[in-house]
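Q: What would this chain look like folded?
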Amino acid sequence: MRLSPSINKKLVALLFVLGVCLALPSTALAAMPAFAENEAVYLVDEATGSVLVDQNGKEKFYPASTTKMMTTLVALDYVADKMDSRVTVGDEVNMVDSTSSLAEIKQGESLTWKELFYGLLLPSGNDAALTIAVNVARMATNDNNLSNDQALKRFVEMMNEKGDEMGLENYHFVTPHGLHDDNHYMTAEDMLLISREALKNKDIREIVKSPTYSHQSTTPGARPWRNTNFLVVDNGSAALFADVYQNGQNPLYNKAATGVKTGFTDEAGRCLVFSAEVDGKMLLGVIFKAADNDALYNQANAVIESLKNDYEQVTWTDENNMMPAVTIKGNHFFDGNRLKLTTVSAAASTVPKDNKSHYVTNVTLNETLLQKEDDEHYKILGDIEEGQEIGALEIKADGKVYQSYPLYAGNKMRPRNIVDFLFWALIIALIVAFIVLARMFFVSRNNKKRGGKIPSSKGKKR
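A: My prediction, written as structure tokens:
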């Protein structure tokens, strides 16, 4: 696709809309760009887990070729440790529409699994998707005699099973490549969860940020594979594809971008899973159904710039991942009366700089274990073990919960029991005994003084 000559004008126009917010709470969007109402947008800072934008994030959309992130994830369960093993391309590649996006791998070619992932994720090869799918399905079933149709059917079943395993909410897969089918759909939030898992693999992270790749089995005369994600294609790489990038220049390149995957069908519109690292923030985002490429990449670049300039990370716990301890009443004497509250890792949020003061913390504790008496005191109702989950640290903005972290007990705590009563009874008995003995001692000493010899009172000799 040749970039429009008007792209520079549109980029200038984009600067005008930076800072424009949707008609949603300002604490949620700050200076993020405006998105069309019919788009799905889900953006997260992976460094803190903060959701920056959620627009139609749970609604059903067509994912187009971003589907290949789930194809990748399912395949990794079987080949993550076999990236250098070779696969022979079969006749399954002839099943795909020749006018769709292809890696142009040929029947009989031998490629490594890693090369197949490059072919899947850079040029968005539907042929590579089929080769990966049929071979993984045969591995999973331990049946190399499965026909292409049988293997594809099984692989799609594995995709849906994986979705169930992950707890995805509104999805259904029909193909491993994402070419349109009315029954092939998912949500932007679910796509982000899938991509997050796939990107845990270092080879996949390396692949999705690569602008180009030349595999060793490339058909003679074939050009390198080009990443369809304009965000990661620098001008040096763009020069290799002058028919795509005018004058070998890519004005949509963003040096902070690190991936991930594009998608397009007429029904799905322009789709993008994208990631970036900027000033300690780690963006992962999904945009579904953008109007065109210009709109899609203008939005993505504006998101990255907004995250850089308009947001900051705030840490709510101390250096030991602790929140202030709470005072406990009715506790076992030997446990002390201070219950430490801790999180697994630092509790942090990515918040808009200009709305930072809107964010406050709120601690909620398990009411079956701890009965709140006031803001500082709780009555213990049951045994609490060190490391036990006992509540949540909520980050609130304008009265709404923005983020939540599980809270765990930093020390053991038990309600008062018979041992406490016996202990205090013993203490009281000892005190009484001490008083009695002390009294007896003083009485005895006084009696001795009174019962002693009386000094002589004889008169002096006259």
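Residues 1-29 have pLDDT under 50 and may be disordered.
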